[in-house]
Amino acid sequence: xxxxxxxxxxxxxxxxxxxxxxxxxxxxxxxxxxxxxxxxxxxxxxxxxxxxxxxxxxxxxxxxxxxxxxxxxxxxxxxxxxxxxxxxxxxxxxxxxxxxxxxxxxxxxxxxxxxxxxxxxxxxxxxxxxxxxxxxxxxxxxxxxxxxxxxxxxxxxxxxxxxxxxxxxxxxxxxxxxxxxxxxxxxxxxxxxxxxxxxxxxxxxxxxxxxxxxxxxxxxxxxxxxxxxxxxxxxxxxxxxxxxxxxxxxxxxxxxxxxxxxxxxxxxxxxxxxxxxxxxxxxxxxxxxxxxxxxxxxxxxxxxxxxxxxxxxxxxxxxxxxxxxxxxxxxxxxxxxxxxxxxxxxxxxxxxxxxxxxxxxxxxxxxxxxxxxxxxxxxxxxxxxxxxxxxxxxxxxxxxxxxxxxxxxxxxxxxxxxxxxxxxxxxxxxxxxxxxxxxxxxxxxxxxxxxxxxxxxxxxxxxxxxxxxxxxxxxxxxxxxxxxxxxxxxxxxxxxxxxxxxxxxxxxxxxxxxxxxxxxxxxxxxxxxxxxxxxxxxxxxxxxxxxxxxxxxxxxxxxxxxxxxxxxxxxxxxxxxxx
Length: 579
Ligand code: PEP
Ligand code: MG
Known about the structure:
Bound molecules: phosphoenolpyruvate, magnesium ion
Radius of gyration: 25 Å
Number of helices: 24
Strand content: 5-15%
Largest sheet: 8 strands, mixed
């Protein structure tokens, strides 16, 4: 039995067998081969191509049915590459001239082609680089005899164990079978963690070398409450955890029962609970958990889930579906927040040295106007369907906000010319997620209807700590005195300017932060749907006087450790079962 401690990302207990997912970092043998081995390597290449073609042809047939059109087209493109004689010749030439292994030759030749594609200005062609990498992986799988574990066709319950998962990979998990997740990498507010939490299954991240301690099929306990994983537990530990798991399920059940009750403090102050979503079908979950609207729709997942750029109609349909669930309630659509750890297919292969400080979010949109306008066009069209608001992410200065608003106005003029209906008074808001925005809140507030504090990014940029890097995760804390002072400033500026203010970072899902945020003046929060019942329970158990005291004491403290201990103790008194 081996116990490992990581970061508790999503609560709950899972006890079942491990499924290890490859990182897809295939180890390519670089050793030189003897001249006598060349023919063997060339035969291996021939077989790998033959098997890859066979595999793709079978997949193409499966996709021939209704709805498989787009995917079938992709397979057809891959097949054309695999049949290309010049590509095969380049690979075999490498084996002959360089005396390298089949794997090395395949990887080198395909990466040459991909890098050639990425340099082409035409987006359609540069995006084909992703196809080349896919073909490379398929051939390497054949050569290395390493089949990717297929998470799409599970028939029994597993806990997924991986070095690292992408947000898109995670979003594809079927929770009927995937009962928990444990990863070596990641932080509590990484986008993979955010998606994993929305699945409502226990998740532990930042386990460092956990994948080396576990083999596929081992029994693993994931304790998402305490951030612990146990490999091959003994029977006594399993028994204790089974009991604990039942108690936790009972607590969840009890909390779920309050979903119909209002989020009102004991002295009658109403708190509005909105939901954070990545996909339209999650809107229903927000409603079920007692949410009163959508405070953050992360629309970039439309891109991350699709092999090609979504059309305006794709955008519109997704928004219409979400608004349909919350007809007369607010739906805040955040414009694309691509970049950093959320790549489009084409961008993944043009990495930046410091992606979180690079061309991400609103900056990316302001440099890709066609893409940005397509989205704004769709949001405005959807604005007549309900109470839609538009929100720009990662604003760092007033000029950026002005530019974004000007583009929105351009799109409005286009719609006027096309005689398409939209809400001319649509509310425009911005996310406050950089120290520069937080410090200039009073100026920014004049040009927007609301602020939404994105504490995930605000924390990372204030403390200079990468939110997804497990090696510095102990330094990452939204209750660090520096972050709290910025949050307080933003709330005060919003109040002075009489604009709406809400919090949509993961801090709003943390039970121990709720009294503090309320005491600092927040009345609207947007959070992960699975956390809503617990947060509502806390709100219903306190008075504003309790919250004001907590905020006053916390803001007088100068040490993060002291603050987090104090907040944990204060919350434990209100909701002891949650700790
Ligand atoms: C944030 O940064 O707090 C936020 C809500 O945005 P995201 O997590 O999508 O970066
Ligand atoms: Mg953010």
